[in-house]
# Entry
Amino acid sequence: MPKEEMLEFDGTVIEVLPDGNYRVKLDNEHMVLAYAAGKMKKNRIRTLAGDRVIVEMSPYDLDRGRISFRHKTGPAVAPAQRRQNFRRR
# Structure
């Protein structure tokens, strides 16, 4: 198996950890620790608890992974809950 070949699994984000990591429960009931891919950080894609994601994992370490895609399931923040970007007087 080539070194570059990654395994892809679907899962659900269970917990957002404070250091930029996520606890993800895969569809096969396996729990992994994952981080967001660089393109997701660059494009400011927010991942919240309950989001469906695709996790890439190395065949050598099946306890850690990289979140490469977040499925679009609707707006993460409802329009009524958005914070205003300006100061009221």
User: Anything to note?
Assistant: The chain is about 5% helix and 45% strand.
